Amino acid sequence: MATIKDIANAAGVSLATVSRVINNGPKVGDKTRERVKKIMVEMGYRPNANARALVTQKSASLGVVLAELLDPFFATLAHGIETVTRRHNVQILMSAGSIEKKTELKAIETLLEHRVEAMVVHSKALDDDTLIEFARQVPGFVLINRYIPEISNRCVWLDNVAGGRLMAEHMIRSGHKNIAVISSRYQIVDPIQRIDGIRQAFEEAGLSLPESSIEYATPDQEGGEKAIQNLLAKSIPFTGVLAYNDAMASGAMSMLQDHHIDIPGKVSIIGYDDVLLAKYCRPKLTTLRYPVEMMAAKAAELALQYASGQPPEDGVTFKYTPTIVKRESVLTI
Amino acid sequence: MATIKDIANAAGVSLATVSRVINNGPKVGDKTRERVKKIMVEMGYRPNANARALVTQKSASLGVVLAELLDPFFATLAHGIETVTRRHNVQILMSAGSIEKKTELKAIETLLEHRVEAMVVHSKALDDDTLIEFARQVPGFVLINRYIPEISNRCVWLDNVAGGRLMAEHMIRSGHKNIAVISSRYQIVDPIQRIDGIRQAFEEAGLSLPESSIEYATPDQEGGEKAIQNLLAKSIPFTGVLAYNDAMASGAMSMLQDHHIDIPGKVSIIGYDDVLLAKYCRPKLTTLRYPVEMMAAKAAELALQYASGQPPEDGVTFKYTPTIVKRESVLTI
DNA sequence: TTGTATGCGTTATCAC
DNA sequence: GTGATAACGCATACAA
Predict the structure, then answer these.
(1) More confidently predicted of A326 and B67
(2) Whose CB among B13, B169, B176, B208 lies 3.0–4.6 Å from B17's, allowing a Cys bridge?
(3) Has residue A328 been placed in a domain?
(4) A residues 83-112 near B, CB within 8 Å?
(5) Where is the HTH lacI-type domain (chains A, B) (predicted)?
């Protein structure tokens, strides 16, 4: 591949001049500039991003660490980031971390080796200290969907406790008393906080939430099916189900319908995330809107700001709150 | 950030020695090796991937160009690629190209500037010649979901004509005669080929497919809704619908159900892709299995092979064929 | 076994 | 306006 040197030779000028026309440098004669440009396209010149990154000490690229591309939730997240990197002419370096300590660490470190200047990280497996240390090292390090007090200005997160409360309150206000919960089996902070919120709402309503009414499974449709099966198997009586996310809710609905249990006639159900699925399953799913895309865009924006040395004013915080989206899966009794 | 030089100074050895221990080079004394290693972790040394790429002329990264991360189809594709890059310890550089000539071109060129050695490209907007030229320039250039005869050994693609035939044949064999088609409004090759296949099956069955029975819309759920609305508005009689993809099928089902038209009682429908959606909508969608993930993995594998100078034997080709997945959305009449 | 020197493709700082 | 030239961080051929 042609280098700047080849161009210089071909054009009969020096490296420096070529470099200037590439970067629209100021002091170049109009005719030399044209000539060099012409030769560049002729020879199919393409600047070498690696060399450039090496000398300028910046990479014009943003690293992304997320758990699992297959999950529509993460796909949405990635999309949110993509909208801003595109606007800023920044490349995305993507690493998947599958919610395992080792893999997440590896993902971040690889990105660091590439000297990305900004980084949006979705980490659930790594502990606070490790992440704080990374934040210290990398100016453009931003966490998404996680809150760590020590680096609160680097966190873009959702208030999951509020979310849990919200869904429980809606179910209770709709007249339900026997309410089951299907949650994620991954003992990360999200499901725990959501259940905390649910518990708060239950207590205020004078209800209790026994452990037997909570089923844990993988946070996908299959997990939703399994969780409902277990609930049915245990003969737990319930007219309401609070799901960890829309995928689980959809799996649960699917399974209930296979058992000819009408939704919302016999059982009401509330999801979480408001991914596309929620709108297109039958009955349409009542759920919590999780503004992932907006949050992801914010996180990318933020990472780029920090990287360029223009951090937002001190004391700002990036907490988002879910809202309820009422559709058809909850019956008022 | 600490460089190889810092380590050398701290350890009292030369650059070369440090470089050797980093790359597990052969001729290093055991105790110096240990000492250097220790210092490296102490100082938190991280090799600079840019510098390394510059000198070795290889980047250990694979570029990916796809249309739209939000689409579950592409998310699956990305996931397929990710499984193999992870195994090969290769970074993913991701660019979205949104089916526009300019954007797709830009995406590829940015990747090229980063000197990725391998590249999996999903391009629908660029013309054959442009892509052939790229393939000539980049050894590890592989196309996915597109077939160009001149570079057939760089194409991993699905036989869309066969797919179209297959879905039409199944619908016809189930006794349907009035069959409508909802297709993608993007005039890329895929929808055209699928309709070609459908036409072939129709002709063989002595049926015809008037243009009025085909509706074009965006290839998503919303498009599916609109397409069905138009069909209903035009009072086209149909008992069967062939959809461009599962998303459109799902939108169509949704809209039909809103009009209290029973599926498959009144209208049968067949999708395309077999994304998760198909399994979880109600009724479960009969559709064509599109082995995207497998194909994406193959494409990544292939790109890496070509890049490392070990191309598969000549004359091989990577055509995949869709198969039908019978579920609940088709009624035999 | 270890060290020295050179170059990868750029940008940037000087001179001219 | 233009041209040498020194970095950037690393790998490697060649010396020692």
Answers:
(1) A326
(2) B13
(3) no
(4) 86, 91-96, 109-110, 112
(5) 2-56
